[in-house]
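Is this the right way to post structure tokens for a design question? Let me know if I should format differently. Anyway, here goes:
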């Protein structure tokens, strides 16, 4: 069954710490968005300011960066559970994936709307996670492009057991449809972050995934 993973998207270290502590009360997995201001127009907090409590939480780093190798030394120090780089970055990601795996870090590749999964099959075959990006880079609160779910069977045909994530516009109106699209991880940003009760919103979204049928 699919799971909900709260996303932290900020350039404010204090807000990062606050959301991290709030989310730790109800989930054991978070995604942290990192932007270099080049790959994505938004400049978010860099990975050197991302920290995790060693006895808590799986941290997924979503690296929206143009030159992944420049960020590798800091990532190896942080040692997230999963590190996701974009297929559209300027470098060959295969050596970077190999380095991360040697350090015990799971690997992921993110694909933008215009990227056809079949064109990056070697990346998909090499990683533990494929992130379908269907929102706006470096921003929360976008509208989900549900047509991107058509990439799921293509990804599965390349590597059936790979974990598939979704990022972009997930909320109460579409979470059930996303879960029924054979997606494993639904990253949720503004729907949780802007809720007056993030824990309840997380619980409501999780309950929504367990329902049968479609939303009309």
């Amino acid at each position: 069954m699919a799971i909900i993973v709260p996303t932290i998207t900020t350039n404010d270290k204090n807000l990062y710490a606050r959301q991290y502590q709030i989310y730790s009360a109800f989930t054991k997995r978070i995604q942290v968005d990192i932007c270099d201001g080049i790959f994505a127009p938004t400049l978010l907090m860099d990975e050197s300011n991302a920290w995790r409590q060693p006895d808590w939480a799986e941290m997924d780093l979503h690296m929206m960066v143009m030159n992944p190798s420049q960020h590798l030394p800091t990532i190896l120090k942080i040692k997230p559970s999963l590190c996701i780089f974009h297929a559209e970055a300027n470098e060959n990601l295969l050596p970077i994936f190999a380095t991360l795996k040697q350090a015990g870090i799971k690997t992921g590749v993110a694909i933008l709307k215009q990227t056809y999964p079949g064109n990056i099959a070697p990346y998909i075959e090499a990683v533990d996670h494929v992130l379908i990006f269907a929102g706006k880079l470096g921003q929360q609160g976008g509208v989900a492009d549900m047509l991107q779910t058509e990439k799921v069977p293509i990804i599965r045909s390349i590597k059936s057991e790979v974990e598939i994530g979704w990022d972009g516009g997930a909320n109460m109106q579409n979470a059930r449809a996303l879960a029924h699209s054979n997606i494993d991880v639904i990253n949720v940003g503004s729907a949780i972050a802007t809720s007056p009760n993030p824990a309840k919103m997380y619980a409501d979204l999780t309950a929504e995934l367990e329902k049968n049928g479609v939303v009309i």
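Format looks fine. Someone answered above. Worth noting: The chain has a mean pLDDT of 92. The two ends are 22 Å apart (CA to CA).
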